[in-house]
Amino acid sequence: DQLKMELQQLLQLLLLLLCVSAEVQHDSFRVIGCSDTDGLDMMTLDGEEVWHADFIHETGVDTLPDFVSHPSFSGLYEQSVGQQQLCKNNLKIIRTGLKDIPDPLDPPTSLLYTANIVELGEKNILVCHVSGFYPAPVNVSWTRNGQKVTEGTSINFPFPNQDNTFTQISRLQFVPQLGDIYSCSVEHLALEEPLTRIWDVEVRVPQPGTGPAVFCGVGLIVGLLGVAVGTFFLIRGRES
Ligand SMILES: *[C@@H]1O[C@H](CO)[C@@H](O)[C@H](O)[C@H]1NC(C)=O
């Protein structure tokens, strides 16, 4: 019986291992950083933020969307605070060792696009995707027809990329009206002047589609001809 139980346990373990190895590989990393005035502690999974420490409000922020199950992050913020102390101490030592070599600055690049297909009068979201910059953060400002807009805007926490740069995404909720012009301006330490992208509302009126109809008609005729010829030869073949 002892042997049987052990065998069963072994089998279960093997099955478990098989299941685990059959799973998709995921990519998770955590970034801890600090400066004299700021701190960063963030966990990511497959390129998305999962959790970050908010040192201003002194709490951890679970940023997983509602529809997934949330693991417990209890105690993580407290751990984070300890890590910050360690980081700041290390920073002092490294600075002395490296004789205060300044950090290289990386300027951001930006993209401006809509989240959904543009329909006049239909709610939409403009997305200003800013990436490749160091250090974080950037300041993003929006305009509509040259006027500053703050209502309906939001920006996410700086997302650390694996190459030591950051990504930040700012969004503006808006309703497209013909002729409106929007802009997204990005300020960063490495930029002498703001990086501005312009987006204007233009809706392509779909042309009545003659092309597909003709194509379909010709295709149908050729197809029917093929069937007729095939049938003709089939019958002749039988008769002979
Ligand atoms: C962002 O804006 C704040 C407040 O206006 C300013 O203190 C800071 O220097 C700005 N940061 C950059 C990178 O321009």
TrEMBL record:
Q: From its record, what is one biological process in GO terms? A: adaptive immune response
List the membrane topology term(s). Single-pass type I membrane protein
Arranged from A to Z, the UniProt key words for this protein are: Adaptive immunity, Disulfide bond, Glycoprotein, Immunity, Immunoglobulin domain, Membrane, MHC II, Signal, Transmembrane, Transmembrane helix
> Where does the record place the Ig-like domain?
107-196
Q: Where in the cell is it found?
A: Membrane
Which Gene Ontology CC terms are recorded?
MHC class II protein complex
Q: Which Pfam families match?
A: C1-set (PF07654), MHC_II_alpha (PF00993)
Q: Where is the signal peptide?
A: 1-22
Positions of transmembrane segments: 212-235
Q: Which InterPro entries match?
A: Ig-like_dom (IPR007110), Ig-like_dom_sf (IPR036179), Ig-like_fold (IPR013783), Ig/MHC_CS (IPR003006), Ig_C1-set (IPR003597), MHC/Immunoglobulin (IPR050160), MHC_I/II-like_Ag-recog (IPR011162), MHC_II_a/b_N (IPR014745)
Q: Which family does it belong to?
A: Belongs to the MHC class II family.
Q: PANTHER family from the xrefs?
A: HLA CLASS II HISTOCOMPATIBILITY ANTIGEN, DR ALPHA CHAIN, MHC CLASS II-RELATED
Q: What is this protein called?
A: Mamu class II histocompatibility antigen, DR alpha chain-like
According to its UniProt entry, this protein's organism is Xiphophorus maculatus
Q: What is the lineage of its organism?
A: Eukaryota, Metazoa, Chordata, Craniata, Vertebrata
